[in-house]
Request: fold
Amino acid sequence: MVRPGGESMGEFELIRRYFTRPTPKAVLGVGDDCALLPMAAGMQMAVSSDMLVAGRHFFPDVDPRTLGHKALAVNLSDLAACGARPVAFTLALALPDANPAWLQAFSDGLFGLADAHGCELIGGDTTQGPLNICITVFGEVPAGSVQRGSQPDTQAILRSGAQTGDDIYVSGTLGDARLALEAMQGRIQLSAAALASARQRLEQPTPRVALGLALRGIASAAADISDGLLGDLGHILERSARGATVNTELAINLLAMHAYFTGASGKFGNMLSPQLTLQCVLAGGDDYELVFTAPAAQRSAVLAASHSSETPVTRIGQIEAAHGLRLVDGHGAAVANTFTSFDHFAP
Ligand code: ADP
Ligand code: MG
Reply:
């Protein structure tokens, strides 16, 4: 709840104006002590939370419209990784003050993405305090049709299903969000056009929900890339008790910005070092692409899923029995892995 008095707009008026919309999928939306969601027979509920803290995950003066988009996008990305269909979400919001222009823009960005995915805001909490946004999403995924050994009984795509010999794929492009951050914090210089396009990736990521749904039954494991490719692939390897080799030559082409800096048509000359390019691609963070694995026998099925979801995918490596993550260049020579993914509590 919001501290009593002080604002011209009270807590409940704020919730009514900016966060109350029709919720046809829910039995009951905003307004009671609990929201109510129906559970379809044979379906399971996929649940995930992500918190965004001002100064930690975003610049406090960021455009509130993109912030509303991103707060939900990072949550939908978790549903995408599991192959779950978005249904609803809750929003726990701490706000320094009730600024109508800020709230309107935040709400517009939030519902713009929510409506695009048919994901309904069904409740939340609102309090006065340093800007902090916590969303919990609810998605649905079919229960298992066949029991897969000791795996949980579900058709959700899990981190734990990668098998030796599986291909490793990444969706879309990687590293551009990190490049934007490097430029916004003054460590590199980008042209206005390059910065605008990189910032779009940082501030308005596209959750790969359609790809995740299309990969159900095809991918053996998946994770979304929030902290950097190598770190998030590492989670799959750990949960699957496997290792992997990743080809950095393939990975480097995942940087959309890469085309700007290299080759005869490079618009801005070759001013991005190979090391920084690899750091952005392999460990950049904030990409919200999917890293997933699939048996080699599923290559054409993966391509079909890529086409049907209109999401490009690139094969970058292979799952192996030997534990650990190995990097090789285009000639198969070892590349030292000095790339560190983001960790809030890294010593
Ligand atoms: P309670 O006191 O029972 O926690 P509140 O008085 O805080 O409930 O909230 C009233 C109603 O408004 C509840 O249905 C709650 O889920 C909803 N709500 C509160 N904050 C938000 C928000 N930021 N977005 C959407 N719904 C919200
Ligand atoms: Mg209550």
